[in-house]
Design a protein that fits this description.
381 residues; alpha/beta; Carbamate kinase; Archaeosine Trna-guanine Transglycosylase, Chain: A, domain 4; five-stranded mixed β-sheet; 15 helices; 15 strands
């Protein structure tokens, strides 16, 4: 397939890649890990690293590997058994990766994460420091959700989202999602006929989301809609995403060579600073401010802070320094930021002018702004 100048520029200007691989790419029809596929993936990742790049691997497959090891014919349908299968399978998964990377003079390093690791700023920064140290030692981070302890409150939903969050954590310019499909199709492949893959998506808008079907693989948890949502998290932060088939030969080395593999989603806007990515795209809001139309217009201008007079409602229970979302009267979130006030104080002063806030809270208040503009990120598309 011919080279593409846009892909060439993105691929060769990306010093850090995040690669996400799904369960169905790594396993056979029975759910057992396929060591040949893992060896091929390790070989490709090593080739990308040999080209002078760093690679972090986000890998599903623990539950599928556990199913194979335990002789289960279908995926468990309750949390207790899913977590047990993941506990058995994770050992097989990391051992297979380590064996594969050792053949190329490298080590696999296991990181098991929950959403709380991303919500907490200190743990978030420690994650980044650990990943940086692993890169310095020429080790390959193999990242997965900690399925053995995750519950609904701390789950990512699927590893597509986890991969996007790792990409933003590392400020990696490129995320490659390897799945069982060739990319985003012009039409639903289940509707008959030969599906045509869209090679380039300049803007991930609602029309593009409308092309995603509801199907997903038998062993995985995420479909195309999940992949597009994750791609949106990355492109909004200034990174690019490629969704391609991990079942076809050598996808990563072909991407490295500039071939038109899969679908390329271009970065949308300027690259965001790491702290802004954490506030706007990573940490989950602990609560929300509801603001009037004037406040929304002022905040979207990018030149003002959120003042108490524009706040008409408070949702949730939060402390000063927490990430909170900002919604309009219709309930649409359009921004997030670090609140200067806890929910009790915020409820006390909402709707007041700045001089009234000072009189109400006195010196103890300490802030004229509910959220300072330096700690605020617009999140609406």
């Amino acid at each position: 397939m011919a080279r593409d100048l846009v892909r060439d520029e993105i691929v060769h200007s990306s010093p850090v890649w995040v690669v996400k691989v799904g369960t169905s790419v790594l396993t056979g029809a029975t759910g057992s890990l396929d060591p040949v596929r893992i060896d091929h993936l390790a070989e490709q990742i090593s080739a990308v690293i040999d080209s002078g790049r760093k690679v972090a691997l986000v890998s599903s497959g623990a539950v599928g590997a556990g199913m194979g090891r335990l002789g289960l014919s279908k995926r468990p349908d309750n949390l207790r058994q899913l977590q047990a299968a993941a506990a058995v399978g994770q050992a097989d998964l990391i051992r297979a990766y380590d064996d594969g990377f050792r053949r190329h003079g490298r080590h696999a390093a296991q990181l098991l994460l929950t959403h709380e690791d991303f919500d907490n700023r200190t743990r978030y920064l420690n994650m980044r420091n650990t990943l940086t140290a692993l890169f310095e030692w020429d080790a390959v981070p193999v990242i997965n959700e900690n399925d053995t302890i995750s519950v609904d409150e701390i789950k990512f939903g699927d590893n597509d989202r986890l991969a996007a969050m790792v990409t933003n954590l590392l400020r990696a310019p490129l995320l490659v999602i390897l799945s069982v499909v060739d990319g985003l199709y012009q039409a639903d492949p289940d509707s008959g006929g030969t599906p045509e893959t869209i090679r380039l998506v300049p803007n991930l808008d609602e029309e593009v989301f409308g092309l995603a079907g509801d199907s997903k693989s038998s062993l995985g948890t995420g479909g195309m809609k999940s992949k597009l949502q994750s791609a949106s998290l990355v492109t909004r932060a200034g990174g690019s995403v490629i969704i391609a088939s991990g079942r076809k030969p050598e996808p990563l080395t072909r991407i490295l060579a500039g071939e038109q593999v899969g679908t390329l989603f271009l970065a949308n806007g300027k690259t965001q600073a790491a702290r802004k990515r954490w506030i706007g795209l990573t940490a989950r809001p602990r609560g929300h401010y509801i603001v009037d139309a004037g406040a929304r217009n002022a905040l979207e201008s990018g030149t003002t802070s959120l003042l108490a007079i524009g706040v008409i409602g408070i949702l949730g229970d939060f402390e000063g320094g927490d990430v909170v979302g900002i919604r309009d009267r219709e309930g649409h979130e359009f921004a997030r930021g670090l609140t200067n006030y806890n929910s009790v104080a915020a409820s006390t002063v909402r709707g007041l002018r700045t001089e009234q806030v000072r009189l109400t809270l006195g010196v103890a208040g300490g802030y004229d702004e509910m959220i300072h503009r330096d700690n605020l990120v617009l999140t609406s598309k």
